[in-house]
Specification:
It is a single chain. The chain has 212 residues and is α/β, with parallel strands linked by helices. The protein has a single domain (5-210), classed as 3-Layer(aba) Sandwich (Rossmann fold), CATH 3.40.50. It is built from six helices and nine strands. It has helices at 5-16, 22-29, 62-72, 89-95, 108-120, 157-160; strands at 51-52, 58-59, 79-83, 100-105, 126-130, 143-148, 163-173, 180-187, 192-200. A hairpin with a 6-residue loop joins strand 7 (163-173) and strand 8.
């Protein structure tokens, strides 16, 4: 894939905003974001902005995707759990950097669309499930890394328990759209340590027992 001027401009903008991991930048360069947005918004696909998708959800800003991915410090043999498949864009980025990606989505229509995109891009190392992401995926645990793409009101400790010791989770936490921060969490043997590193606005993480 030959990068065009829009892609190059976006990558330069991401570098200027703190994305220095060359593998992450390459993954964004080779993942066609226009495939993951509604056709009417294709002309905005390579802009550094969040865009609406189906089911009242959004595809995150490329800089947020890149910074979250960079904080995961992925390795080629790692198993990653993603909470909130959404358009599938974040999972597609992860799939280029890790051995296996497990992704959970609660909206069946979003999951159907994402699966079609994964097939089109021949991303065969992504396994998906329709369900309540707040509970994680115990049958496939433990994971080396976890990334959460919807904001929990408090630290999602149930997900941290599905990390291997030393594993890392990146997740937005906070109540309300104006009080969220991205946290980088590392699981220790019996506890965890966390660091907030970015102010963000994500849709809420809603467990199934709180309604759709």
């Amino acid at each position: 894939m030959i990068a065009d001027s829009r892609t190059i401009r976006l990558l330069m903008e991401l570098r200027g905003q703190g994305v220095g991991d060359t593998a992450v930048l390459k993954a964004l360069e080779t993942t066609p974001r226009d495939l993951f947005v509604p056709e009417l918004l294709n002309d905005q696909a390579w802009e550094n902005t969040a865009l609406p998708i189906s089911c009242g959800q959004t595809i995150s800003q490329p800089v947020v995707v890149a910074l979250m991915t960079q904080r995961l410090a992925l390795g080629a043999r790692m198993r990653v759990l993603e909470i909130g498949t959404g358009s599938g864009y974040q999972a597609a980025i992860l799939a280029r950097l890790a051995r296996r990606v497990y992704s959970i989505e609660r909206h069946s229509e979003l999951l159907r669309q994402a699966r079609e995109r994964f097939d089109r891009l021949r991303l065969h190392n992504i396994t998906t499930m329709l369900g309540d992401g707040s509970r994680g995926w115990a049958e496939q645990a433990p994971f080396d890394r976890i990334v959460v793409t919807a904001a929990a009101s408090t630290m999602p400790e149930a997900l941290i328990e599905q990390l291997v010791p030393g594993g890392v989770m990146v997740a937005p936490v906070g109540e309300g759209a104006w009080n969220q921060k991205l946290y980088c969490v590392r699981r220790l043997d019996d506890t965890y340590e966390s660091e907030a590193f970015l102010d963000v606005r994500f849709v809420p993480l809603v467990p199934d027992d709180e309604g759709s």
